[in-house]
Design goal:
alpha/beta, FAD/NAD(P)-binding domain, five-stranded parallel sheet, about 35% helix, binds flavin-adenine dinucleotide
């Protein structure tokens, strides 16, 4: 009988885990490795705001899992897992069953709404390829209506007001993109720039609280210079249609973009496994479920502590924990001791629009052109490790050619597009 290892989730954590198994068990006929994801592609989550903010083409966000695992000794299945029977060790989707001997749950996270009325139904989120495309289309539609329809003063104001809830990295990055796209949209739809309002709302007293204070001030100044109004110390109280009420009872009317909270994937909510209150799987230092030793978890889906603190839900945690969980399953199969997870972080990096980056990498603060170079190198490094030269070239194409020639009519753009996708 073969030993069956299943990884659910082809995100940053799941892919890393699958690569470790592929390298370790590639020639072992007794081990069967399967990666299951509801989508046939990996989403580059760190670039969602660039698509939602009209900077890059939506296609730039996706790398097919088949390309990532081309030639690797594992099977990739496109299916959505709905239920898990941990006693029988079987995963269930709508139509299929997947028995396992060892399981890694790497199903990522989803936005949390904290029970605030109307946010889930009326707000836009930024947590998937689909979210980014919906938001991008909606924003462009708002400008289209503002330009083509006869609107009252209030209707115009509502169409051109964008309220970004959450002063963390995602909210600030989204605000930065919008500030840049606004200028192009105003030109394209003949809308005066002063009609557009971009408001960043943060419930606590300060934005970007995990960023070094010097860098935080720089980002703050850059946001203000870009025309973004900051409202700190007030959260969202409730939402009804386009009416957004803040905790200080200020009423705003416009599009709500919700980036303020994060929780485990809601599909884990009903599964009988030990979780924290935000549906993240509680794991020990080996990333092994506290209630089910044959189940490991990695990335945003896990609730792990290191030196008494929760781990940040970022790519570095996901990649390193994916690797650590896989190595501990290998160790279990080889009857060797499991190793505790010891994350190592290289720093933080935030981009506010396409021209401003603030980063602290290996203790060194970087902004300006070195910051921009660092950002592109970090992204290229990740993309190269997944998709090799072809997808790295595609990244450069989207970042440096597509945005200046989005209809791909430019000669160079056309040549590159054909090289990257000969069928198009
Ligand atoms: C807008 C945005 C910007 C960000 N920017 C940064 C940044 O600049 N730097 C940084 O370090 N971090 C950033 N993050 C955080 C980072 O993206 C996450 O920490 C990281 O994606 C977590 O990786 P993961 O593998 O755990 O989950 P994910 O990458 O989310 O992957 C989860 C996978 O599971 C699949 N899945 C989910 N449920 C099921 C199911 N039931 N059945 C089958 N498949 C399923 C999904 O399709 C997905 O492919 C950002 C996040 C967002 C939303």
């Amino acid at each position: 009988m073969k030993t069956k290892i299943i990884i659910v989730g082809g995100g940053y954590a799941g892919i890393r885990a699958a690569k470790v198994f592929g390298a370790k068990f590639g020639l072992n006929p007794g081990i069967d490795i399967q990666l299951i994801d509801k989508n046939p592609y990996h989403t580059l989550m760190t670039e969602l705001h660039e698509v939602a903010g009209g900077r890059i083409d939506p296609d730039a966000l996706r790398i097919p899992l088949a390309d990532i695992f081309h030639g690797d000794p594992l099977s990739v299945v496109t299916d959505e897992i709905k239920r898990i029977d941990f006693d029988r060790q079987v995963l269930y989707s709508e139509d299929c069953q997947y028995p396992y001997d060892f399981l890694i749950l790497a199903t990522g996270s989803k936005p949390a709404f904290f029970g605030i009325q109307g946010v889930a139904s009326h707000g836009f989120t930024l947590w998937s390829y689909k979210d980014a495309v919906l938001l991008r289309d909606h924003i462009e539609n708002c400008f289209y209506h503002a330009s083509h329809n006869k609107l009252t003063r209030d209707q115009l104001r509502e169409k051109l007001t964008f309220i970004i809830a959450g002063g963390g990295f995602t909210g600030v990055e989204m605000a930065g993109e919008l500030a840049e796209w606004k200028k192009r949209l105003c030109r394209q739809y003949s809308v005066p720039q002063e009609e557009v309002r971009l408001i960043l709302v943060e419930a606590s007293q300060d934005i970007l609280q995990t960023l070094d204070s010097k860098l935080r001030v720089k980002c703050l100044n850059y946001l203000k210079k870009s025309g973004i109004s900051l409202m700190t110390g007030c959260g969202i109280k409730d939402v009804e249609g386009t009416r957004v009420r803040l905790s200080n009872d200020t009423l705003l009317n416009g599009t709500l973009i919700w980036t303020a909270g994060i929780q485990g994937n809601p599909f884990l909510k009903g599964q009988p496994i030990q979780k924290d209150p935000r549906f993240r799987i509680q794991v020990d230092e080996h990333l092994q479920s506290k209630s089910h030793p044959r189940v490991f978890s990695a990335g945003d889906a896990m609730a792990a502590l290191y030196q008494g603190k929760s781990l940040p839900q970022v790519v570095e945690t996901a990649v390193q924990s994916g690797e650590a969980a896989a190595r501990n399953i290998v160790a279990t199969l080889e009857e060797k001791p499991l190793l505790p997870f010891r994350p190592k972080y290289h720093g933080t990096l935030i981009s506010v629009g396409s021209y401003y980056v603030a980063a602290k990498l290996s203790g060194i603060q970087i902004t300006g052109i070195p910051g921009l170079c660092a950002k592109h190198l970090v992204h290229l490094h990740h993309i190269f490790s997944l998709g090799g030269f072809r997808f790295s070239l595609r990244y450069l194409h989207h970042q440096f050619i597509y945005r200046f020639s989005p209809d791909s009519t430019g000669f160079l753009s056309k040549q590159i597009t054909q090289f990257l996708d000969p069928e198009c």
